[in-house]
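Continuing from the previous page of notes. For each protein in this section, the sequence appears first, followed by its structure tokens. Read the first protein now.
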Amino acid sequence: MTAALFRPATGSRSALLEALVVVGGVVAMAAASRVAFDVGPVPITLQTYVLFVLAGLFGGRLGLAIVLAWLACAAFGLPVLSGGSGGWRAVIGHTAGFLAGMAVAAWVCGRGAIRVKGWAPLAALFLAGHVMVLMVGWAGLASFMSPGPAFESGILPLLPGAALKSLAAALTVRALTR
């Protein structure tokens, strides 16, 4: 069995269902943003765990739609980012690369989740998604500080959590799609 649980139908009923999935996904991402541990310039949150669960369940198109809607809410000032932050400055600040990386990872991992079988390949896919988020995040963070310190303070502390969240997301998606 592949990971993606949601298979869109056609018509207005499908559009309503997809809209509800996006709204629910935005709420889940906002809730995950509230769990934040400051470890440097970038906090450890549950955002990527929820991101990969949503992408694994609903695929790349809806996963990307959820992330873009969540970022739009943040840009318009809703407190949906870590620490309850929101507003345009929060979206384009030092974590902008991580936020952009989440959009890319939602698309790529959501598309890939449809094809993989088993929790181990799914965990590897989500780990690759974390690498995408962290690499784009590092590039963004390096525009605010030197690349070396950006990596040491903004990427290294996130690596153990990325591995754990990748595994947990894969196991969660597997459990929900059985």
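Done with the first. The second protein uses the same format. Note its length before scrolling.
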Amino acid sequence: MTFRTPAPKSSSFRVPSDIGSVPSARHRVVAIVRTWDLPLAEDTVETLELLAGEVIANAVVHTGEGCQVTMSWDGTRVRLEVEDAEGCLLPQRAPADLDEESGRGLLLVAGLAQRWGVRPTPGGKAVWFEVGSCSPSPSHPSPAARESDLSFGGARQPVAVAEPGCGVLSGSRAHVTAT
């Protein structure tokens, strides 16, 4: 029996500004991935669900508006982008005490995603992450990363890209300038 990698796929949906809509958006992400019938381990799907909830909640809470969720599969990884209308400033992790209930979402993204970052969009910014069963070397980013993260309207733009273990959340920002 020959194994075939599923063809590239994508899906997009809008999340309303109500924080109560985050759980259903998170479940919708999982439902979409399951309909795609991808070769992903169950723990990868669970990680996708957790991280989707974090970045969607951040967009809704910090902008007070809805957001656009776009998912794609490039044959290797699932990429999830959450676009909001809050300028293209990089998200910042606020210091969180041990007893606080929030402030650790981006730390989870940085620790669990294979890659993540933020890119400017015409109306604000998009925070994205990738999870999957395979991990190409950082010197060979996925096709989705090459196309959307390193250019913005054909102009040279700083874009934050983080690999696991990078210090993006510890105060030192990693910037890539598209050429």
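What the second structure shows: The CA atoms of residues 78 and 131 lie 5 Å apart. The beta strands are 9-15, 67-73, 77-84, 115-121, 124-132, 158-162, 175-177. We return to this in next week's lecture.
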